[in-house]
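Reader question, answered in our methods column.
A reader sent in the components of a multi-part assembly and asked whether the whole thing could be modeled at once rather than chain by chain. We filled in our standard form and ran it. Here is what they sent:
COMPLEX SIZE: two components
ENTRIES:
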Amino acid sequence: MKRLTKALLPLAVFFCGQPAIAYQIGDWDLHGTLSQGWIHSEDNNFIEDSTDGTFDFREFGLNASTSIGERITLGGQLFGRKYGSIGDDKVYLDWLSATYQLRDEVGFRIGKLKMPYGLYGDTRDVDSLRTQILLPQGVYAESARGSINSMWGGAVFGTMNSNQWGSLDYSLQLGQSDVNEDSGELDRLASSSALKFDDADDGAAGAIKLLWNTPIQGLRLGTTLSWSEFVLSGPTGNFSSTPSTFEADLEEQYFLVTSAEYAWNRATLSAEYLHSRSDTKFVLGSDTNSAVQFGSDASAYYLHADYRATNNMTLGLGYSSSSLKDNTRSTSSRTDNNEKQNGYYVSLRYDLTPNIITKVEQHFSNGRAGLFQAENPDGLEDDWSMTLVKISFVF
Amino acid sequence: MSNPPLQGSNPLSKGSNTPSQGSNTPSKRLLQHSPTWRTLRVAIRFLSRFLRLVIRPTLPICAALILLGTIAPTLDAVGQQPDIHLAMSSNVSLLEPTRKEIAGIFLGQKRQWSDGTRIKIAILDSAVEQRSFLDAVVDRSPSQYWAHWRNIVFSGRGIMPKIFSSEEELLNYLAEEEGVIGHITDNNLVAREGAVTLTLTIDGVWQQ
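And here is the structure of the entire assembly that came back:
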């Protein structure tokens, strides 16, 4: 942490003296973000050591973009984060793309692309863009963020404008999934099973996004569907009596999010509903006859209200609910493992300057979905709460 | 969101606990037992319980107040709206634009002019000017407007408008580049640059 602070502090001080909106080097526009948070949870560890209060909650990114001629845009973004045991401040390529804009209605983009996910999925990295510190966890679970963050491939996108019907933003992208096996996210997901993921082979991935800016001013309705396939493998550890290897083939994993947002005067109301499904074939060693099929369905929704009390201060209030249902097809390994979580949260955002944003947030939750047994060795409580504080710098 | 099926669906998962990492380092132990840390923890526990006991039952009331607050007059003082002028490069053809069209341009929803030239947005770097201009044109505060553009930029979907510290600089840029549309405060300045201007009338219509 000390080394990171030493490295980033001069950068932050340097950019603080620059114009509030962007910094330019030649024809390139530079933008960046740096945020540091603190989480304290009661009764359950939300992330590693959070019952003791932890500062292992930060994000930083640097973004560069330029245009060539009238139709081509190039850009990329480096990003890093520390979220409990995830990320470890390692910098990775978040996205890198070349865009050709033929007309407003049609454009093409290739490279490593952010995956559309609900209204806020493709900008969840940047804390300063929202009122809350944590996006509602039922729909935007931090524990599975990496598998739906970005993909390599191509996209066709555009905006259809109509005087009568508003406008429709669309995008369709296809390519290959990009799972980062070094982020610690997969190890955390597997921590309760004693398995260890050594390798991830990427498979097909894609996403569709439709966002209708309706003729009613401030009302947006949308839907995103994203899917990906990948194969995870590694040693079984003490998962089986004899040491061996395993292969978990995520044959199908999709996320369907339906969204609505209404901005009216100083208030913004939003609601989203998620339905997701994953089907996995799990093979121990090389014996394909031992294959076990796992399946799970999840659904979640949230309601959120923002109120901008002054130009600097915004209040947020929300309710989030989620449930995970294990549909394991093999009766021999079926477990009664329905998991649920719901809760309220209240957020306060105060912009010290256009570049420096502070936030405080309180959560009151019931349920264990999204929590990890390995991080809670003394067991999980049903009722728990959490306080978060965060400061962000963006330019 | 569905976690990969190994989370929770494995019969061996219950009871197999991985010790949490990093919680027993000497520096952390020292920190956790220091008087400051203990005081902070007690304060946070107190605050957390207070929030749980007091705020939770009043959440529905807070929600109602937030909704009611949108109807009440805004807390920020609203001054008299100055005239709003736009200047455009000479190649731009925009005869009788609607308010919606102009808003679409400044929000990045429309990216090209009818001749295929890229739309280049120019905005003055003055909080006062930005506030009145953005309020009249896109119905957003400067912080909302730049948050909107950061959404676009950080997800790789576009490039931010250019910011100019003076109208002189903005007009020079407008004279050098094609496809520029920018906010100015004095349309008399534009005459010497041979650019086109639009003014938002009191009836809410853009006129040349």
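What stands out: The radius of gyration of chain B is 27 Å. The longest strand of chain B covers residues 84-88.
Send us your own complexes using the same form.
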